[in-house]
Design goal:
Keywords: Cytoplasm, Exonuclease, Hydrolase, Leucine-rich repeat, Magnesium, Metal-binding, Nuclease, Nucleus, Repeat, RNA-binding, Transcription, Transcription regulation
CATH superfamily of the largest domain: Endonuclease/exonuclease/phosphatase
Organism: Geranomyces variabilis
Oligomer: single chain
Shape: elongated
Cofactor: Mg(2+)
Radius of gyration: 30 Å
Largest sheet: 7 strands, mixed
Catalytic activity: Exonucleolytic cleavage of poly(A) to 5'-AMP
Number of domains: 2
Pfam family, one: Exo_endo_phos
Length: 667
Amino acid sequence: MGEDRNPYQYSLGNPYFPYAPGSPGHTSAINSTPSSPAYGGGGGGGGGYVPHGPIYSNAPHRYPGQKMPGHGGMHSPQMGHTVPTYQQHGMQTSGAALSSAHTSAGASNGQIAGPFHQKQVDSVMSSRQAASPHHHARVAAAANRSAQNNPSANNDGANGQTVDPNAKPSEWTVLDLGGMQMKNISTSLFAYRFLTTLYLNHNAFSSLSPEVARLTNLVVLDVSGNRLSSVPPELGMLVELRELLLHDNELTFLPPELGQLYQLTILGLEGNPLTDPVASMIQKEGTSAVITYLREMCPVGAPPADREWIPLEDEYTGDTKDTFTVMSWNILCEKYATQQMYAYTPSWALSWDYRKDLIVQEILNYNADIVFLQEIPMGQYEDFFREQLNQAGGYEGLFFPKSRARTMAEYDRRQVDGCATFWKSNKFTLLEKHCIEFQQVAVQNPALRKTDDVFNRVMIKDNVTTVALLENKETHTRILTANAHLHWDPAYEDVKLVQTGMLMEEMDRLGSKWSNSSTNTAKSRGSAGNETNRFPLLVCGDFNALPTSGVYEYLSRGRVPQDHVDFGTYSYGPYTSEGLHHKFSLKSAYSHAGELEFTNFTPRFKGVIDYIWYSTNTLDVSGLLSSIDREYIQRCVGFPNAHHPSDHLPLVVSMRVKSGSNQSLNK
């Protein structure tokens, strides 16, 4: 990924939902976001956006059954509107507080505790007004009839036409089952994953099925006025929720998994016998404070099972001197891991001190011979990773930061991230190194710098690639490696394709240069001429490109046409007049077993954007690390979390140099 993360969150955005909060058909009295400092409120943290499994083993305490309100109503002079009559448990309707037998903490004598408590009271009163059967559906129908009878509201009265003849059939996303006194509901309901709003209010449910977690598009869920003594922890998986109304139930506690609902703006809890600190917190500090508290206090669930190793060939019986393992991982830079971007993650699990130790532990656990890391800050490379990996793993390293670092003061430079390559010092020697700065490559290419789009789109992105030529100390086989991190923004698919084109051109140039250098003729090993494709080649990193992208097509096929859709309408000299070509025979290592389900995982994006590319004419893949346990993933809303320090997965593969490869270098 990169700065302003998560790159792919835009794909879901904030779609318009019929009768969502604030629309004519929605009757919630709450239309504004609480103003308290929110980690979870407001939706900025789609991060992309720590998930743990249910943690309760004991049955929750049940409060004595609360009877249901009647459908009648009485006038409240203080509020100036009609509210249902609550005859059971001595419920009162005097004043805005509407105190019940389940008097809220901090609101003794019916007094409003503050603005957050007032919002709870307003919300519960709106809920109680909706106690009649299908109240919300009736309100929506009335609003639609009114709109249809008002030509000016539909088409400014033009020619008397009120209906668009080309209009598509409406798609319903709201379901109102409120006020029906139902005791049970079919689990078939939870197959309606298109639902964005679900009203189950004012029924007689004593429990809510965990299957509700399947309704992943829910924005509003109202289960007020039931007999719930608990709600399932799985509710925490509904990360699109903005309103969760639990008024007038029998809840004494909330599962901490609800802390994952980082976009929640209204958590309706009035009329429940809740205990502190939640009872007082919801009134004094509001929804965001409660969600933050639950998230920070959520116990850490069981870690996932170890990722399985997938062998791709029978046990190799030949010479193992030319076999090696490779790891590539975007570790999530400290400055990008903000609570606003990753609001579903507890602050302690998001802290750099916690994550950096976990990152080093993960690297040492896999113990790869060559390690490619992206988004590693310069200061952290110099002060932490280089030393830790050298002492504990026997690694040496090479690092280049993004281009912006060259114009910054020392303190600011140390915050800039870049790409670091590490190798086992007892296995490899570094022969050559180079930093590919895409800005510089573009401006130095006469054919590219003639176009305005290069200056307006490519030159403003300062991504880099760390290139290293490594030599096996035993066999003297040389491996040309590239550790790349392309631009993140999906609105710049053209830039990613141009960056990849420049990357492969530079790898061709460097390979040719180093093949003819004195380094390659050392120890009387001869010259390779210009046959750069005889180098075993690795191109690894975070490409921010899906398997359906032009970047993937270009690397895997060796070409893309000049009119490829990813170029859009932009002009990039020969790239868009002749197309892109490279002469290396590359393949994604994971394509042997099918690309993983994802390499990047947040609530708003789950897909493959990281790769280990290798030259098929010189290297074979003998095994690879599988994905994470599916059962564990089903309990997660996204990474990072307590077990995974980055929103990306580390990729690990085992490779072997083909017999006869590098012959021109190793005569």
